[in-house]
Amino acid sequence: MLNWGATNTDNETIQYCFPNNDLSCTKNVKPGAEYIMMYIFISAVSVFTVFLNLLVIISIAHFKQLHTPTNVLIFSLAVADLIVGLIVTPVQGIKLIEPCWFFGEIFCSVFHFIFYVVTTASLGNLIVISVDRYIAVTDPLRYPARVNTNKAVFSIVVNWVFNCIYSFFLLYESIIYPEKNHACIGECILFIKLGYIITDVIVTLVTPCCLIIILYMKICFVAKHQAEHINSLLDKKAKSETKAARTLGIVVMVYLLCWIPYYIAALTLGQDRGDALVINIMYWILLTDLSTNHV
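User: That's the sequence. What structure does it adopt?
Assistant: Structure tokens below.
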């Protein structure tokens, strides 16, 4: 992950973020109407994200009949997406709209860390959900014995702990030396070494994509086979599991289709105005998908 919301510099008035500081960045002042429209859009996305995920979280937490292993995994996914709506989307929106970063260099590092944790945790949740659906479809009779709520909770804890540790090591220099996140005062840019970028692409894009695609190819194959040879007594349950697996499969594939273009754009495009626009569009498509990928 890189190119944190590249900024379009096509504006009229150039000023300084901190006029009394010689190391201050310059800023380009946007027209008032553009500010208002962008803030309305960011606010709408944030409120929509928070509302949907709170609805999922409260529903699963309140109704005991929803305390199933799959719903526990969806609960974790909703928590990650709720953090996106509460923190990532508003802050990244302000970062995109405002020409200067006024939250300080420490929060710049913290914000990058939060983004990495919740996005990788969200992807990890989808991987675990894919495994859950794979077991449910391929081994429905032994599914209750192989998968239970305690195992689901354990997998969630492992997922979050792993992603916290992974994000910390990936962003170690940015966290320990926050002054590296800007070339001038009023800027928040994440600098990652090429070796770390390659590692991140393998860990958070290539490996999950391959794993999820393989799992759902097997699910589709098994579902087709079951449709031809299913016992009538198991027909209703099998159809239900297959339908759920296909629905989640669509969700996962849409998620990957949002991730892949962003990575390609961020890795291959430059910093001019046209490239910056493409990167920002891909970035906000990704954030929007994060807000709704469990619905």
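The mean pLDDT is 78.
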